[in-house]
Amino acid sequence: MSNRPTTAPHETSFIPPGADRCGRCGKAVYAAEKRVGGGGIWHKTCFNCATCHKMLESGVECAADNEVFCKTCYGRKYGPKGVGFGGGAGCLSAE
Ligand SMILES: [Zn+2]
Ligand SMILES: [Zn+2]
């Protein structure tokens, strides 16, 4: 019994050691496509609102549940001004 399966059933991509992982798709994020925001690291193309997929600019994202949202969707989902539920949710105010 020496033939181990070479492909893990739920692992579709190899994450290099030390590489950052995208909070949206879970794949490795390299410097050229890296966006930092909402307490996580994202691909440039993944850094958009989890609800409406509007592109987000750094500094205006609202973070909750390990996801990022635009202000509008965040407000709808979690209430205005990011009323805390004690779960570390927070909305950066750019105003
Ligand atoms: Zn991604
Ligand atoms: Zn949105």
From TrEMBL:
Keywords: LIM domain, Metal-binding, Nucleus, Repeat, Zinc
Keyword Nucleus: yes
Annotated ranges, domain LIM zinc-binding: 20-80
Entry annotated with the keyword Ribonucleoprotein: no
Pfam families: LIM
Gene3D superfamilies: Cysteine Rich Protein
Subcellular location: Nucleus
InterPro entries the UniProt entry points to: Znf_LIM (IPR001781)
PANTHER family, per database record: MUSCLE LIM PROTEIN MLP84B, RHO-GTPASE-ACTIVATING PROTEIN LRG1
Protein name in UniProt: Muscle LIM protein 1-like
Gene designation per UniProt: LOC106818431
